Structure prediction request, 408 residues.
Amino acid sequence: MKLGNKNSEEGSQRHAVLRSVGNIVVVVAVFAFGVGIGQGKITLGLSHSLSSENQQLPGKLNYTSVDEVYKSLKENYDGKITETQLTDGLKHGLATATKDPYTVFFTAKEATDFNKELNNSFSGIGAQLGQDSDGNIEVIAPIDGLPAAKAGIMAKDIIASINGTSTAGMSVDEAVTKIRGPKDTKVTLQLVRNKQQALTLTITRQDIVLPSVKTKTLDGNIGYIQITTFANDTVDLTQKAAQQFKDAGVKGIVLDLRNDPGGLLDAAVRVSSLWLPAGKNVLKEQRGSTVVQSYEALGGDILNGIPTVILVNDGSASASEITAGALHDNKAAYIIGEKSYGKGVVQQLISFNDGSQLKVTVASWYRPNGQNINHKGITPDKTVKISADDAKAGTDTQLQAAQAYLAK
Prediction:
């Protein structure tokens, strides 16, 4: 499975373009795919075997020094710990040693939670999480109507601690796991806002099941499609909306990918195919300078030729950036908003017999124009920001700009 999301909700780094396509993992706990999810990301259904191993690593690890640490721990540690906890700790440590926020080991339980989160089914507070340039756990966006937003959490808030545990050195996925929990239980977050204001919020978790696509018809017969994450239901829901808008003869389409942390690579490719003729390049994956796989549009381009505006912001990552880049570079869409997050790497989800999984960065992805957007993002054709006053008044200046563009 390949991922393409940021760091998702509880929004972790679902920015996993997992091949399962990111790492914004949604912590909703979600607080993503990834930030995820990334803000990382994940992609399903298009995985392939990579022919080249990492030649910098030895064929076999020497565990002598590990055994020495274990012996000292066994002889001296005054506390309770099981063999399973120790071995899981070693596996977590191997992934953490890469210093790649999108490479993460999941125990069987963590893997189950991650996959639920990837498909918008979990118990949590409802926020997308990622990491800022300093490695802090950062709120990408709270989800409207859910506990995080109701409690007053805002985009760009730094989560300094979770239930009293400092997040220093913590991965997004670890933060997501700590924030998520059973329905009606509480989690206390210490936040830092604007790098100076300290806040402490206690939030009650709730069950969260979110459809990944919302649609409506705007004034002027303009179709509106909002994709909140690229999940298992995304392709069917988007295809249904596309056909309805096509049959209605809409004048244009607004594809809203704002605060979409990413998700499944397969979903990003298939959504892009609703606009692009079969054979058009959607993205290429590379290891170093070697192209290991190229993804092309699959046909069924229902919306081909219909003027389209894509809305993005700094919460758009991974799979959403793949779709935005593919449509833009193939001249199928105009982009309005703010520069996107910038997650240009792909994760592979590898499953083990005990139910555990390794989410590992396997390649970088490149837009049809040849650019890798990692840490750079996609710059819109027209930059439009939503001011604090606009947000307070509920005025969506970016959507207004998209409607004005399509009304020409």
Q: What stands out?
A: The two ends are 42 Å apart (CA to CA). The first strand starts at residue 2 and ends at 5. The domain at 213-343+368-406 is CATH 3.90.226.10 (2-enoyl-CoA Hydratase; Chain A, domain 1).
